[in-house]
Amino acid sequence: MGGEKKKFWLYISPWLFGFVVFIAGPMVVSMYLSFTAYDVLTPARWVGFDNYIQLLNHERFWDALGNTLFYTFVGVPLHVVLGLSISILLLRAIPGINMFRTAFYLPSIFGGVAILLLWNFMLAPGTNGQNVGLINGLLGMVGIDGPGWSSSEAWAKPAVILVKLWGVGGSILIYLPALASVPRDLLEAADIDGASPFKRFVSVTLPCISPAVFFTATMEIINTFKMFIEPMIIPGLNPAWTDTLMILLYNNAFEYFRMGYASAIAWVMFIFIMGLTLVNLYFAKRWVYYDSK
Amino acid sequence: MKKLLSWMSLCLLVWVLTACMGSEPSSQPGDGSSDGEVTVTFSYWGATFDKERMEAIRAEFEKVNEDINVELVNLPSEGYSQKQMTMMTAGNPYDVIQLAEQSYAFAARGTLEDLSPYIERDGVDLNDFYDVGIESYTHEGRVYGMPLRLGSMMMFYNKNLFDEHGLDYPDETWTWEDVIEAGEVITDHDEGVFGLSALGGWWASIAQFLHSNGGSILSEDRTAFNLDSPESLAAIELMNEIVNERDISPSASQIPEGVDLWTSGRIGMMVDGPWHILSSQANITDFDWDITVAPKGTQHASPTFSNAFHMSKASKNKEAAWEVIKFWTGPEAQAILAEEHGDTPSMIAVAESDTYLELGDNPPENFELMLESLNTAFAPEVTLMWGEINQVVQEGFSRVIDLNEPIEDVMPDVKSEVEDLLEEDKRLQEQFEED
Question: Which of A228, A254, A257 to mutate to test the interface with B (most CBs of B within 10 A)?
């Protein structure tokens, strides 16, 4: 047994080393820094809870928090439902299915600034009917007068969510195998009992794939909370409409020489994400079904 | 066998890890080789024109300084300050650093070398340079950076559009009233043509408009908020009138994505920086254009762009770094810059020489007005909180101009935020003076 133990530590040591040096260490340091005024270039000065008090009195923080929560509570359910719907469609064994699967999955790999700049063009409202972007052009064809997206308070946040949904295909990777492993006999039994397709989905498929849904939802909540690049590249005309906590953090840490304050923001984010995840886990007991039990 | 394999793979892992950690980057500042040669690292930002210029100056420099190697490091302007901060924190800064508005922030934090003693020792005459160029890099009476080039806001105009409507070309006497009058005639919304380029959106545009109408963001000594003074308010009102009531200048949502209104001939007058000269020469083929000084309200005012070369306090080759800075802002370097006929050389004699002013047959005809506009040049209103104040003011202007919110709704928000930042600024100043 001693040999086993030794081997365990031996094999896990590279990862452990990386974790301690590159993740846990910086976390502890940022915890300390969040109680200091630190501009990176001069020594940190201890200021106690000043950063946190300042944060709570800072209107920009509340705006950013509100936006972040909006993205989380509106964006994540959309992401989950849409991902699941696409996956169900891609489950069928029709000719050329692999091509379709590839087509839906690819956008999630092609991400980043270049794609977002493309979205900027697509979302352009145009002026006097000139230089209208693809999205409003399509809406115009069916007689809808498209919004100004980034330039309207009501649509700036939905525009960011829309762009984020571009990567929805990434969850196909998780849903497809889960859907494929739903026991046939259960589905057939339900069929014989006269359950409608919808009823079958709700009573049989959904419980069977609930771990996958739970996993993607949790990961997506965490990712959305840390959303940075989308609102950075496609901000609202008034940034207060779209800025996330991450943008606030970035600006303070790297533009305004306020690393201590930014560390405080990071810890507030951590508390929120942790809290949401715990709530998630608590409710998961009621609806996530694991085979092993 | 298995055991051996696992041990071998572990050894391999350990070796890779140590290799990653122990490898020294080849470009260590100050790794002078043993035969008396030193290498000076020199970081700057810029695109093709800048790279070519820097290489040309380096070629000249290395002819006369055989024992100093200059290693030019072109960094992306996105994240430039962060990169500098990181290198400084790691105790490994670049020897020479190009900085613009961030000069003060870095100097106040004790990361830059005071160049005054070197300037004095070598008898460099600062009177040879434009005041505004030196001023921007003088903090607490000490010079921290030497500029090679500067330029101030100009007004570009599309001659064809003026001819079309039988209007006189703008000149140095033009006021904002004249601009509005001509702009009204030129603007044609069906064609997507605007009389005047977009206003606001960045510090220089805001500053030019405010200062030319007698307003400013901060008080003279940069300690109080001045955006709600009668002059500043009148300026904001006028800007709002031009953009929203008369609609002769595009608001943010009227600027098409991916179309350059100026080079495609849809702007009558453009108030912007002098870098447009080189790009206009390169990109405009189907209309004639020229330049004049930026319009005046109650006075002429042209915010000035520049950047300067600074020395790291932690540099290990200060003498060599100083030689580099001295050469890079000296006559040979200035001559190389002058031949581009773009940004203005910071040395008055070079700027006034034919090397700079003779363009041959190239536009703009009124090129010598570049020097005229330097007479009313002023440096950006830099404080330790420059980045944040800038951001707040820009957003405030955007709310008024682009979103058409009433000034009286926006101003209190801007005021309270800027005043908080000024307090922070004061606190920092005191703290840095103690250090």
Answer: A257
